[in-house]
Amino acid sequence: MDFLRPVTWADALAAKAEHPAATPIQGGTDVMVEINLDKGRPSALLDLNPVAELQDWDESDGWFRIGAGVSYTRVITELGAWLPGLAQASRTVGSPQIRNRGTVAGNLGAASPAGDSHPPLLASGAMVEAESVRGTRLIPIGEFYTGVKRNALAPDELIRAVRVPRADGPQYFSKIGTRNAMVIAVCSFGLALHPGRREVGTGIGSAAPTPRRAPEAERFLAGELDWEGRTAPSPEAVRRFGELVVQAASPIDDVRGTRDYRLHALAVMARRTLGWAWAEYKGE
Amino acid sequence: MRVNVTVNGEKLTAGDVWPGESLLYVLRERLGLPGAKNACEQGECGSCTVYLDGTPVCACLVAAGQAEGREVVTVEGLADGDRLDPVQRAFVECGAVQCGFCTPGLIVQAHALIAATPGVPADAEIREALAGNLCRCTGYEKILDAVRLAAARKAAP
User: Fold this and answer.
1) pLDDT tens digits for A223-265?
2) Which residue, A93, A90, A207, is CA-closest to A148?
3) Looking at the 3D structure of chain B, how many domains does it have?
4) In 3-state terms, what secondary structure has residue B144?
5) Is ipTM over 0.95?
6) Closest approach of chain A CAs to the CA of B92, in angstroms?
7) How far apart are CA A123 and CA A194, in angstroms?
8) Chain B residues lying within 8 Å of A182, measured CB to CB
9) Distance, CA of B61 to CA of A29 (rounded, Å)
10) Which domains can be identified in chain A, with CATH numbers?
11) Residue B133 C-beta-side C-alpha neighbours within 13 Å
């Protein structure tokens, strides 16, 4: 195994072009587990910790560009006010030690259907900034996940940053697990209301081969909500929203939960997050 | 490969490091510092918690090469000679140690919490801060007592 240690972003891209099979490592909270437990042994590790460009975030035109080296801890403490959905999800990742090292970009690189970042990124319409020596491209989050632990990155590409629009309405995240810390989601759900354009964003986690939106549920709810008068949606509409979220999922039975449990829990989380979001929208 | 790392204030070099091995392995097996414990090797238990550039992390999830040129403080680095750190002293006084395996990780994580918190942290904060440190003897009540005691002594010495 080789250990590649570029110090600049340009060197990192050159290294990835030269060693496309190298596994990028940032916080190591996924990559090192695989190696420690001998589940896989990459030909090379490409350490991105020394690349200073990745350690920052900035904002322009209402979009936050979160460098691939920004930890969950920093997302929570520095970005929570503007990106509440992502911050709530980050807050449920592992433990303090894991959040100090793990990154949203790492979650995207691993592309586990259970990754906690994915539902809020889907609900808010994020973009993944991928770069290689050939150039930069922005991948809409809905096109990023291509299969179980697979993503749209080309072999020579690295994630430079995640771009997330500033919240323009309430955002909530909910996750089912056996305890409050250190759990991989049994299933999870993210909701974002966009009152300005009268749209709804959703993200389903750990209930399909990839994280995914529930587009029909989004359209239904956007048409149903009383954006102007802010009266509460009817119980039938809330229930229907939950059903449509469930219809968008295709979970399996596995060690963490059954298909039936996940479908039930998704409907509950969809209704619950809607309740929280609407209470916030009404100013309660 | 070789890894140069400052551990507990001392510049050390580990040789013959396999690129896939962890900082924990380097500390324990190559640098003779067995304080940080090796248990789950997947970041679940917190027994290997050390400071990396001042931030508590699971040493089992840091690749050895990622520690190059950085500063690590392990539980061995907290005491001043024979004088225990106040967090260590509180653990002893409160009987917060049973089998002792989780203790080094808990001490480092509690040390970080107390350093970052003015006054005595609320129980919810302590529980949250220690959520990634498992004690299989389930001695959590005494551990909470120890953290409260150490924090109270720091707040009102």
Assistant:
1) 999 999 999 999 999 999 999 999 999 999 999 999 999 999 9
2) A207
3) 2
4) helix
5) yes
6) 24
7) 10
8) 44, 131-132
9) 6
10) 1-46 (no CATH), 171-281 (3.30.390.50)
11) 31
